[in-house]
Design goal:
heterodimer, A: mainly beta, seven-stranded mixed beta sheet, 50% strand, globular, B: 113 residues
């Protein structure tokens, strides 16, 4: 079965650079969530989109922005990167019909800021 | 404020049952109990969820106390591949908005040979 696809899997950037992470949800899933997991930390919710509209917002820095496109894929844009942005970024998706609260997570994108 | 509390870690022998406890004493009537796990640096994986009845699937069983203030996740025959951080989360499942999961401090399960 198709899973949540994230790209790139690994990314290395310098301080003050920008980075874009992409997430392709499972087909027919209309809700996308972004999480950030720093070293030794638990996943922290950043932002979510439902039917291409922002549905919830967590601890997402102002330097970050995200959107969901018409094909339901989502992109997380990060600017003025800082060392502390080095983390695993997970995307998850869910579907509305027969919704059980189950989120399907991708394998993550590892961002390293030097 | 954390909605759930879990021990920091536990271990069990391979092939034995692993019983992972979770306290959620302030759970509200419409909140479900969800369990997810995260194997090292992989994306979190859904295991099971329930409201008040005990639940079982191919991965695990979930036992919820009658007052719903605590629950136990049971892995009936733990294997080395079950070594992971297990998260107990209470949430109201909702389509669209307000359906995010908030991960707290999970429990690290170590399965020993």
């Amino acid at each position: 079965a198709a899973g949540v696809i994230q790209s790139p899997r690994h990314l290395i950037k310098e301080k003050r650079e920008t980075a874009t992470l992409k997430c392709y949800p499972i087909p027919r899933h209309d809700t996308v969530y972004w999480y950030q997991q720093g070293p030794g930390q638990d996943p922290q919710f950043l932002i979510s989109f439902y039917e291409k509209m922002q549905s919830d917002k967590g601890s997402i820095p102002d330097r970050f922005s995200a959107q969901q496109f018409s094909d339901y894929h989502s992109e997380l844009n990060m600017s003025s990167l800082e060392l502390g942005d080095s983390a695993l970024y997970f995307c998850a998706s869910s579907y509305p019909q027969g919704y059980t609260g189950e989120l399907f997570f991708g394998e993550g994108s590892r961002l390293t800021v030097l | 404020d954390a909605k759930t509390t879990q021990p920091t870690s536990m271990d069990c022998a391979e092939g034995r049952a692993a019983n992972l406890p979770c306290n959620h004493s302030t759970i509200s009537g419409n909140e479900y109990v969800y369990w997810y796990r995260q194997i090292h640096s992989q994306g979190p994986q859904y295991i099971i969820h329930g409201l008040k009845n005990n639940e079982t699937n191919e991965m695990a069983s979930l036992i919820i106390t009658e007052d719903r203030k605590s629950s136990t996740l049971i892995l009936p025959h733990a294997t080395l591949r079950d070594t992971a951080v297990y998260y107990c989360i209470v949430v109201v499942p909702d389509t669209g908005a307000n359906s995010k999961l908030t991960f707290g401090k999970g429990i690290t399960l170590s399965v020993r040979p």
